[in-house]
Amino acid sequence: MDDDDLILNSLSRQEKESLARYGLAAKTRRREANQRSRERKRHAGLVRMEVDVRPEHRADLRLLIDLYVAARHSGDALQVTRVPMPVLDGSAVLEAAANGNSQFDARSNSRAGPPKNSRPAPHRAEPGGDLAELAGFQKAFFSDGYSIRLNSIIADIIRTDAPLPLDLLRRKVARLHGWHRAGGLIAARIDACLGAAEIHEEDGTAFVWEPGAYTSRVPYRVRPERDIREISRHELADLLDQHAVALAHAANPLRECARLAGIGRLTPAIREYLEECLAWWRANPN
After folding, report:
1. How much is the pTM?
2. Fewest Cβ atoms nearer than 10 Å: which of 39, 94, 227, 283?
3. At a CB cut-off of 8 Å and minimum separation 6, what does 220 contact?
4. SS (H, E, C) the chain
5. Cβ atoms within 10 A of the Cβ of 260, count?
6. What is the C-alpha separation between 193 and 186, in angstroms, rounded?
């Protein structure tokens, strides 16, 4: 029995009831104060929104946040319009922005249309366009005549993002064409159009590299939207090289590695991956 229990047991029934009433009143006051604060913020236009985001959409949300921050820093306007996506299921809406377009097409089912005098989003005759275009690209996806175009799309992604997991490359290509995921046939079609790209295994995960670019180290890229397990150990090793002294003196090198990579919460899967990367880094000094 701790001190709190001893104090509580020493109180009379009347004192306990008085204490309970006081606690209830304090709780009510806090709730009312929070409500008043929310009302003030709502009137001031400072509304806090809490939305549950499915795991497969978190990368898109992080990209949207990065675009917003970049727009604020540069002073540019950023217009985001809701787009009906029965096929995309909310995944590929940011592909146009990732390619340098900060303004989405205004084909929206929302009541408010685009602002007056707003500049329309540039037309791009490639996957990631409107639903009619997506349907056309999906229909042509498996045809021999589309192979050159598909090779070019895959090569562009590899040139920008490699090294990256093969599964991630498949998802990127599938989403550009309006599919939520890359099933067996889609994955096989993408694999057949990898061209001269190289595949290297990292503890059972296939990573795609540009032709002739495979090396023990590649520059670490700060991209908050990436899952740590999507980063090759060859790239993560560059980050560890930069902070080798700090890691050598860290009480918990694994925690320090997570901090350097911007990871706030160590899940079992992330912990396992970082442990494998740390072991590989120590065994393969630069």
Report:
1. 0.55
2. 283
3. 235, 236, 238, 239, 242
4. CCHHHHHHHHCCHHHHHHHHHHHHHHHHHHHHHHHHHHHHHHHCCCCCCCCCCCHHHHHHHHHHHHHHHHHHHHCCCCCCCCCCCCCCCCCHHHHHHHCCCCCCCCCCCCCCCCCCCCCCCCCCCCCCCCHHHHHHHHHHCCCHHHHHHHHHHHHHHHHHHCCEEHHHHHHHHHHHCCCCCCCHHHHHHHHCCCCCCEEEEECCEEEEECCCCCCCCCCCCCCCCCCHHHCCHHHHHHHHHHCHHHHHHCCCHHHHHHHHCCCCCCCHHHHHHHHHHHHHHHHCCC
5. 17
6. 11
- What is the DSSP-derived secondary structure letter of residue 83? -
Q: Is the distance from CB of 134 to CB of 127 less than 8 angstroms?
A: yes
CA 35, 37, 39, 42 torsion-angle sign: negative
| pLDDT tens, position by position, 167-226 | 999 999 998 888 888 888 899 999 999 999 999 999 999 999 999 999 999 999 988 788
Q: How far is Cα 72 from Cα 262, in angstroms, rounded to an integer? A: 22
Q: Distance (Å, rounded) from C-alpha 60 to C-alpha 62?
A: 5
E-assigned strand segments in 122-188: 164-165
∠ CA(181), CA(138), CA(143), 5° rounding?
A: 115
Amino acid at 284: N
User: What would the two tokens of residue 41 be?
Assistant: 């913020």
* Token representation of residue 202: 């990292």
d(CA 178, CA 166): 19
